[in-house]
């Protein structure tokens, strides 16, 4: 019995650690975790309760007909307004309360490069440029109107 005593001490320590882990897990893991998948189910209701920030494409066209018409026949037709102008739910609800953001002339090259900077992972037919070589110092919008780029 004396020879296995040290093994009993290790086994007891192991049991205490496991019990401690189970108690800590019970206290830390939210009650709704795992109810509808491997995440916290209450998060769905919490996200639904957040105020809307994005109005969606359908909110822009009624007031901005000219821009919507130009964009609808352009290469940017698949890009949503809020991708460039930011979240506009507040503007859609009260147009005078918030002016949609417009990329600044000085920041235009970096702004356009988010999508159009040369990148091997993009399709070969996707318009790509090296912003350091392609018309340096000139804002993209001077040659390429954003709502009807060519």
What does this structure look like?
- This protein has 150 residues and is mainly α.
- The chain folds into three domains: 5-49, no CATH class; 52-102, no CATH class; 103-150, no CATH class.
- It is built from six helices and no strands.
- It has helices at residues 5-28, 42-49, 65-72, 81-85, 89-93, 108-116.
- It is elongated and about 90 Å long.
- The protein starts with a helix and ends in a 34-residue tail after the last helix.
- The mean pLDDT is 89.
Brief overview:
The chain is mostly helical and 150 residues long.
Notable traits:
150 residues; 6 helices; mainly alpha; 3 domains; 0% strand; single chain
Structural class: mainly alpha
> Quaternary arrangement of the chains shown?
single chain
SSE string: HHHHHH
Residues in helices, as a percent range? 25-40%
Low-confidence stretches: none
| Shape designation | elongated
How is the topology of this model organized?
Blueprint: H1 5-28, H2 42-49, H3 65-72, H4 81-85, H5 89-93, H6 108-116
């Amino acid at each position: 019995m004396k020879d296995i005593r040290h093994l009993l001490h290790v086994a007891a320590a192991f049991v205490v650690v496991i019990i401690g882990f189970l108690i800590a897990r019970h206290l830390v893991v939210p009650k709704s975790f795992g109810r509808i998948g491997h995440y916290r189910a209450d998060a769905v209701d919490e996200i639904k309760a957040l105020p809307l920030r994005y109005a969606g494409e359908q909110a822009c066209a009624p007031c901005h007909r000219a821009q919507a018409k130009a964009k609808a026949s352009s290469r940017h037709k698949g890009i949503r307004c809020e991708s460039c102008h930011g979240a506009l739910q507040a503007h859609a609800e009260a147009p005078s309360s918030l002016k949609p953001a417009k990329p600044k002339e000085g920041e235009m090259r970096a702004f356009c490069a988010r999508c159009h900077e040369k990148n091997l992972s993009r399709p070969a037919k996707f318009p790509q440029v090296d912003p350091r070589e392609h018309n340096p110092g000139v804002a993209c919008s001077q040659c390429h109107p954003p709502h009807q780029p060519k």
